[in-house]
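In this supplementary section we document a worked example of the pipeline. Step one takes a protein sequence of length 326 as its only input; no multiple sequence alignment statistics are reported here. Step two produces a three-dimensional model, which step three serialises into C-alpha cells for compact storage. The input and output of this example are shown verbatim.
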Amino acid sequence: MLDLLLPFGEAALLITPDRCVKEAAGATETIFAVPPQALVGQRWEEPPVDSTRRSLHWAIEATAEGYVAPRFLPSIVPFDDSYVAKLSYLSGKRLLIRLSPSHEPPLRAFVGTKIRPALTSVSGFTDVLRKGIDGPLTDTQIEDLDTIDLDARMALVWLDDLLARHVLPTLVGPLPVLLHALLALTPDDLPRRHLAQNHVTLAMDLPDAVPVYSSRIFRSNVAGLIHMLSREAAQGSQITLTTATDARDEELNVMVNYRPTQDNPVGHLEPVDTFGGAEVHRAQKLLALISSLQARLSPYQCRAWADSDPGSTTVTLTIPRWYGPL
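The serialised model returned by step three reads:
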C-alpha cells in the first residue's frame, strides 16, 4: 500500500529496520483515502525501476543493512514530482521520513527561462562588441568588455553551483551502481574538438565491478571536469582517469591527472565555500574549479581537492562505496 501513498501537505513516517511503518502522522493518505494511522504496520516494498522513489527505497535499505558508511546517507531525496523526503537517522537503525512539498522545480524553471538567458545574452553581446561589429573600440573599452564577459560567465557558474547544491538533490537521488557503468562516457560526453585541437588524449582505467552509491550528477561533473581540463592541458599531453580506495575502504577516490599549460602552485589545495563568503580570485582557476565541484557534489557526500607537482596536477573526487546488492 505504501507504493500508493500520496502526501497532502507535511507528513512523517517512522520506518523500522524490518522496513515497516511504526508511526505515521500528518496529512498522509493513499489513493484509497486511507488515513495515516492505517499505514502503521505496512511494509515498504521496492518500487518499480522507473519510479522516482527508488532513491528513497535504497536509503531505507542502506539504513537497515549498513550498505554504506553512515556519514554517506542522504539527508534529502526526491519522493515524486511534487514532494521531497527529508531523512533523519535515529538509533536502532530507525529512519524518520518527513514528506514536504517541493518548491524547487518552479525555481529551476525560472532560472532556466529567465536568469540564464539574460546572463548568456550579456556574454554574447560583449563578444559582438569586442569584435568591433558595431564600430571600433579602444583598448580600455576592450578590457572593460573582457571584465563584463568574465563576470557574466562566473555568474553562470555560481548559478549552476547554487542549483546543484540546493535544487538537484530534490530531483535526483543517489542509487547503487557500478562505477564503470556510472562513468561510461560516450563520445558526446567528451570535448572532442578541444582534445583534437590541443592533441590531448584521454585514458581511463576504471575497475570493472566496484559498486558505488551516487547519482548521474557525479557523472556529469566528471564529464564537465574533463571538458575544462581539455582547455587547460598542455599540447600533446594526456588526461588520465584512475581510482584508488581510501584507507577505511568506505569511499573511492576518482583521480583525474593532467599536465597544465602553466604550472599550478605546488602542493595540496582544498576547496573554499563561496556560498559562505569565501573569495576566489579570477587568476585562481584551479581553486575555482575544485570549489565549484565541491559545491555541486557535497549534497551527495562527495568531496574534491587537488594536488600539484611541477608539470602535473591531479584533481581528486571522492564517491561512497556500496556494499550491498544492486
